[in-house]
């Protein structure tokens, strides 16, 4: 019998049963069985609290005490191309899927020309068209017992992005997944579920963008799973640009096989409370994983980045650089773990966390961690926290640059170290523009 956690009301169970008839798949389908198990697990786990070690620096009570209504598919035509145009990659000849409140919107999407065997579609459609392929991987890496948010996502998952690249295929242009929030008068829950499967010797760049068309209270609780085959190369970029009243909890689990290479770039600019969790399992020799992150927080924003790189096999490499720029009374969190298992000899791992505080009221909690159970490894980690260097400001001002411009130049240079690691050119150009805009808005707010 399921034990209801004390910080979870029957609200989500009632919403689950109320919406049950509208969920894709019959009552006995694999997907719906998984949903029911996830709901039971969510009721046991509840929402995490600050007594949980992994959440002790981030109080998500505003999320836990709000009764969010799971979003249904929006009415056709409610969102036009003109409204999403500012968030598109202009001049980008790639592949675009658009989701409104977590549901695939084919009228706004353009998958483009695809090589034979490549699938770029909504998850709901893929469940019907490719059930064996989906169920082979879905929820195998992001398990429902990880935390309450992962379980809640699985309980209400309906749609999201499904990408399958067969062996020996290279997509020269990126796949852009645009997730648009359109909140209503009541607090809304959006639960995109993404599954990416990349075959041997293949190559692809995937961009997830999370934006809002209107202001409102809502929670985006997204889970992505990335399975990377032998010798495959993947860049996964994630831009979070949601409304100031929004909550965002994003989870991605990456599973890498031999000699694969994955680069993950996570950029967080919006939201009231934001939690990003990135987990990479290097499960075969020769794998390389690179995690980069940039957070820019102003006002009273909270942006929490948790990363885990699990070196399970020998001769693997990982590189990690996470930076944060904090202004106002914002709060940043970084917790980066590197595990090196007993048999993972010849591991080479490096982790760096750097934070720039632009105000006296901003704060950061940083906790880099190494757990090493092998003896022939090369692992380093470090964290720095500081303000803009006075001598650098003096140098610029001595050359006729006013103080505001000098501060912006130094702040942008600090962030550019991460932005320049994004290889998808349209996204990198968008990030340059967004950063300049956010720095200007931060000055005005200050």
Q: Could you explain the architecture of this structure?
A:
The protein has 446 residues and is α/β, with parallel strands linked by helices. It has one domain. The protein is 23% helix and 36% strand. The protein has ten helices and 21 strands. It has helices at 11-19, 30-45, 61-64, 81-84, 123-129, 131-137, 148-156, 390-397, 403-419, 425-445; strands at 69-70, 95-100, 103-104, 119-122, 161-165, 175-181, 188-190, 193-198, 203-212, 218-228, 233-241, 247-256, 261-268, 273-282, 288-297, 302-311, 317-326, 331-340, 348-357, 363-372, 378-386. The strands form two sheets. Strands 1, 4, 5, 7, 8, 10, 12, 14, 16, 18 and 20 form an eleven-stranded mixed beta sheet that branches. A ten-stranded mixed beta sheet has the order 3-2-6-9-11-13-15-17-19-21, covered by helices on one side. The longest helix has 21 residues, at 425-445. The N and C termini lie far apart (53 Å). The model has no long low-confidence stretch (mean pLDDT 91).
Question: Could you give the count of β-strands?
Answer: 21
Biggest pleated-sheet summary: 11 strands, mixed
The average pLDDT score comes to 91
Number of helices: 10
Distance between the termini: 53 Å
